[in-house]
């Protein structure tokens, strides 16, 4: 995960405590919980609780990782892993001294139970309320792979007392927590490395479907050449409408289906009839489409699995289907570029099969040469581009591009790069 606003982590945990504690049967009827991020001495209320961030340290595990970037100063592109240290301290200000003490101990017990029951908080973590379940994580943290791990530190009595003896205060009832490992959001690299594609080797029992490779052929024309060239890509990098092949063994049964998986899918989806599946057992061919049933297929990196079904007749004359799934193998659906035209200094890219304006943030990138263009929401200036519905991307060339020169244009959508293409600078 990556973030810049550390207070979102504190807000998340306080939201959990504030929502969950009053739901316990032991909670006093009519009592109001005050859960605060302030230091313990500044929190007041009959049932008040402080969850105070008092120390931050850099996580040694993430610090030691090798993050490769093409830049003379790589640290700005390196996520900074941090561990947050909190003190959980009840601070009742009830009138009676005994009531104050009992309230503190009740709050501590319920808070310890809650943080024990929710050791990991992610996008899907919910807590019961009087109505429907409520998501714990605030919207600003969701959808970015954030996972908060909450750990109660086994702090010795002697060490705990030093926290309070730093000033003139007496030791108080408290628990000490670590939340790790948060990543401070890095700068985005402005240069992208060349792609490296690898093929895995898998061993399976005889009779199961096995995928050895996916591949397709891509035709393109180099600048100032009239005859097109053709390359084979493996794993396959296919646009919508393009044909790709899956090679392996046992890829045909009484029924053969192609399953498509993506990190955004709850479950793999089945390619429908429009994908034109054909198989002879060792080679399966299909045509990529922007839909698989009701599921939209956007450009991006996918995994494909071949599911074969064998139908057998049982001794009682009934029939039963036996499914076998192959290993999953990578398949890239690349953004199809129909054409690129220039008018009055503005380049217009026309794409096919998806709306570029619906692609979020850095999941849509445009490179002219080795320069990454900046995405904007208004008219683009030099070195900028604008995605517009339903199928247009307008841009202005970056400074320094010579008129009449051929420059490579690369459109990257959700980590999948378009086929080789050069444009002539006007």
Automatic annotation (TrEMBL):
Pvc16 N-terminal domain boundaries: 9-197
Taxonomy, superkingdom: Bacteria
Pfam family of the protein (one): Pvc16_N
UniProt-recorded name of the protein: Pvc16 N-terminal domain-containing protein
Native organism: Pelobacter propionicus (strain DSM 2379 / NBRC 103807 / OttBd1)
């Amino acid at each position: 995960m990556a973030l810049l606003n550390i207070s979102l982590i504190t807000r998340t945990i306080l939201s959990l405590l504030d929502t969950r504690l009053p739901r316990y049967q032991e909670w006093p009827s009519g009592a109001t919980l005050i859960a605060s991020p302030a230091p313990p001495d500044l929190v007041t209320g009959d049932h008040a609780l402080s969850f105070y961030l008092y120390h931050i340290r850099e996580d040694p595990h993430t610090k030691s990782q090798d993050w490769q970037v093409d830049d003379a100063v790589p640290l700005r592109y390196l996520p900074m892993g941090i561990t947050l240290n909190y003190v959980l301290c009840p601070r009742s200000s009830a009138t009676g001294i005994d009531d104050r003490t009992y309230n503190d101990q009740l709050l501590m017990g319920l808070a310890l139970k809650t943080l024990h029951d929710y050791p990991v908080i992610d996008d899907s973590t919910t807590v019961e309320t009087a109505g429907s379940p409520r998501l714990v994580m605030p919207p600003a943290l969701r959808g970015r792979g954030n996972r908060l791990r909450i750990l109660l530190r086994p702090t010795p009595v002697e060490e705990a007392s030093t926290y309070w003896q730093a000033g003139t205060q007496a030791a108080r009832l408290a628990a000490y927590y670590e939340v790790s490992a948060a990543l401070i959001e890095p700068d985005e690299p402005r240069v992208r490395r060349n792609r490296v594609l690898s093929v895995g080797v898998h061993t399976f029992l005889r009779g199961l479907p096995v995928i050895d490779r996916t591949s397709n052929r891509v035709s393109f024309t180099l600048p100032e050449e009239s005859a097109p060239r053709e390359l084979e890509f493996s794993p396959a990098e296919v646009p919508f409408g393009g044909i790709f092949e899956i090679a392996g063994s046992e890829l045909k049964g009484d029924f053969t289906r192609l399953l498509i998986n993506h990190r955004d899918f709850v479950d793999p989806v089945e390619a429908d009839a429009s994908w034109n599946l054909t198989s002879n057992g060792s080679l399966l061919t299909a045509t990529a489409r922007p839909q698989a049933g009701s599921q939209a297929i956007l450009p991006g990196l996918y995994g494909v699995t071949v599911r074969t079904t064998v139908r057998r007749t049982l001794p009682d004359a009934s029939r039963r289907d036996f499914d076998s799934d192959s290993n999953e193998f990578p398949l890239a659906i690349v953004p199809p570029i129909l054409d690129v035209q220039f008018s009055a200094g503005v380049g217009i890219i026309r794409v096919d099969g998806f709306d570029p304006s619906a692609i979020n943030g850095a999941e849509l990138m445009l490179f002219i040469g080795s320069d990454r263009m900046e995405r904007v929401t208004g008219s683009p200036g030099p070195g900028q581009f604008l995605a517009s519905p339903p199928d247009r991307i307008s841009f202005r060339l970056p400074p320094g591009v010579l008129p009449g020169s051929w420059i490579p244009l690369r459109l990257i959508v959700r980590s999948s790069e378009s086929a080789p293409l050069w444009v002539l600078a006007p």
